[in-house]
Design a protein that fits this description.
This protein has 147 residues and is α+β, with helices and mostly antiparallel strands. It is built from four helices and five strands. Strand 4 and strand 5 form a beta hairpin.
């Protein structure tokens, strides 16, 4: 069983620069056809100061943590037993190429189902920009199979 005393644990904060080349690559990879996400002139015409961050791209930046496996290692979870259970995003402000985003991840819950056969780790991440404004809140749920 995962030690529930880790509920509330906050991982070290880290920052990531949003690069326009990476935004273009991500947009193309997901089939985003709107030129606002790949063409700076189209983005400006649409009223954006730079290329906007496409939906779900913040998950990619979350994986840029100095150690993306830190939560799993802290909790002693075997990667071979892990399933991606859920991912959600709540957006509060736009993010753009050139922004410097900070990520602060917290273990908000650990619980089990099926008499411990499945354990769930809920991570909440606050994303703020270089001005300290809240950009988004991310929630990820990791499922650990114990059978």
């Amino acid at each position: 069983m995962i030690d529930r005393s880790h509920i509330g644990h906050v991982m070290p904060r880290y920052t990531v620069d949003v690069e326009k080349g990476r935004l273009r690559f991500f947009s193309k990879a997901i089939g985003q056809a709107d030129p606002v996400y790949t063409d700076e002139a189209a983005a400006r015409e649409a009223g954006h100061p730079a290329l906007p961050v496409p939906p779900t791209f913040l998950f990619c930046l979350e994986m840029d943590a100095p150690n993306p496996a830190a939560v799993r290692e802290l909790l002693g979870i075997d990667i071979g037993k892990v399933l991606h259970g859920e991912q959600s995003f709540t957006y509060h402000a736009m993010a753009y190429a050139g922004d410097r985003l900070s990520f602060e991840q917290r273990i908000s819950d650990i619980y089990d189902k099926k008499n411990g056969a499945l354990e769930f780790v809920v991570r909440d991440t606050r994303v703020t920009n270089q001005d300290g404004a809240l950009v988004a809140e991310l929630r990820g749920v990791t499922v650990v199979r114990n059978v």
